[in-house]
Each structure stands twice: as structure tokens, then as C-alpha cells.
Amino acid sequence: MQVGRLLIAVSLLAAQSAMAADTLTGTFRGDGRACYGALFVRPKTIEWNASFFKCGPTRYKVIEQDLSGEHPHAAFKIEDHRKRCGLAVIEVSRYSEFSWSVKGYPTMEAYQKRDEPGWKDSADPARQVALCGMRKE
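The structure assignment produced for this chain is given below.
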């Protein structure tokens, strides 16, 4: 009976490790007046320190991800509201061999409607997006 429980526990740990390995992780560095700092995406936490704000480290949930092809991307919903620093979602996508786009959305709604007319480039603070070009280390 205990051998069966041990096998189940080992299987669950292996599945969790495989899921973590399939998540986009790494350190992304930004430059310039507003983007100087770094985004750290770790297997269980995310942290974004830039010139004008500090987020985390905090737990996250992957809400969108596609690591295939030349332009992998992922979106992370910040789980700990006390450490959100005004951001609800952080999106990371590669747009060239060495460059990554990192965007911070103030609400889940802003992330979900990011491509809709009237949301993109809006002056409304609830719709504004923090945007930084970064390089992955």
C-alpha cells in the first residue's frame, strides 16, 4: 500500500516539474529612463523592478502561453494582490532574435481587450500599459 502511495507522489512531483519546465522563465533586462531594471520570471514567482515601480516577488498563474516558433510569448496573472504594484498581468513576447517586449496591464480587462479599438493607446489610466523592450539573459 505504501509503495502505491510513493509511486503516486513521485508521479505528481514529476508532473509538476514537467509543467514548470514548460513555462517561460528567465531574467529580462531593460534600459533607459523608464525601463531600467529587470523582470525575473522564476518557476513559482515573478518580479519586475523598473525605474518607476517595484512588483513582487509574487506568485503567478500562466494565463496564456505559446513557446513554439520564432516568437514565443506568455502572459502571467499576478496572484498576490498586495504585491501587484498596479499591475494585474505581465505579458512577455520575443519580437526579434535578441529583443523581448514586456508589457504590464493594470487590470485583467485591459489585458483581455488590449487589441480592441478604443483600448489600445487610450489615455484612460485603467487602460494604459507599461511597455519595455528588454533582452533575455
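Interim note for the steering committee: The longest helix spans residues 2-21. The helical segments are 2-21, 108-112.
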